[in-house]
Amino acid sequence: MEWTIQELAARAGITSRTLRHYDRVGLLVPSRVGANGYRYYNPTAVARLQRILLMRRLGMGLPAIAEVLAEEVDALDGLRAHIAALEEERDRIERQVRSVRHTLEALQAGVEPRMDVMLAGFNDLYKDEVISRWGEHAFQVSNDWWHGKSLDQQRAWKQDTDDLVAAWVAAVKAGDSPTSEHAQSLAARHVQWLSQIPGTPAAEGDRERSIEMVNGIGDMFVDDPRFAAMYDDEAGATFVRDALHAYAHTRM
Q: What does UniProt give as the signal peptide span (predicted)?
């Protein structure tokens, strides 16, 4: 099957002049030229044009495109690389769409679009810690999950989080022991809270890594001043850490 230069230009959304220019610079030569001087393009040539147009859309100039195509040993590997680049671009655009949608919903609800963590993302502030402790996959999956929520769903989740923190603080003020039944029930509630977040070991049912995660989170509460402040002071953060450690050691 072949297409004339006019047919290919029309299907590709470009001009015949562009195709002739690609021919002149050696970027895309026709598969054959008829006796009447017409240029014809077979599927192999069309596949090459597809890749040229993809690279152009990614902002590459013609000399750079020519260099990429000239250095390729396997056209299939080149196509795979382009699929990966397009998927990355798609993910970036999807994140932007979610961000703008959240901003719109916030404005329609009469609240500030950038209030607290609601639109900043569930774990954006702690991206480096999440990746270093549990990997890029854990961050990306949980971050996508958070940004996929509606504004009302984010509010509900944040309220549940605030309620859990308040319950921990109340237990500390009541003089409970980290190993008391009440403190251990809070630890169980905390682990259940974590299991709702996609990408975490708790959500994936990985017992060994879940124990490691719970212990690591407990340590982070004490080591990071931001978390100590969340639980009123270092003593509060230490109580939560000890309760989580005890729960991970005896009940997970």
A: none
Amino acid at 42: N
Per the model's pLDDT, the better-predicted residue between 163 and 73 turns out to be 163
Return all residues near 208 (Cβ < 8 A) that are at least 6 apart: none
CA–CA separation, 205 and 252 (whole Å): 11
Q: What is the pLDDT of residues 148-196, one digit of tens each?
A: 777 778 778 888 988 999 999 999 999 999 999 999 999 999 999 989 9
In CATH, which of 3.90.650.10, 3.30.450.20, 3.10.20.880, 1.10.1660.10 is domain 3-71? 1.10.1660.10
| Cα 232 to Cα 220: distance, rounded to the nearest angstrom | 15
DSSP state of 125: G
Angstrom distance (rounded) from CA 146 to CA 157: 10
> What are 4's strand-pairing partners?
40
Radius of gyration of the chain (CA): 28
What counts of helices (H) and strands (E) characterise the chain? 13, 3
Report the amino acid identity of residue 108.
Q
> Residue 130: which of 206, 205, 224 has the closest Cα?
224
Residue 151 amino acid letter:
L
Domain ranges of the chain: 3-71, 73-113, 116-250
pTM listed for this prediction = 0.52
Beta bridge partner(s), residue 163: none
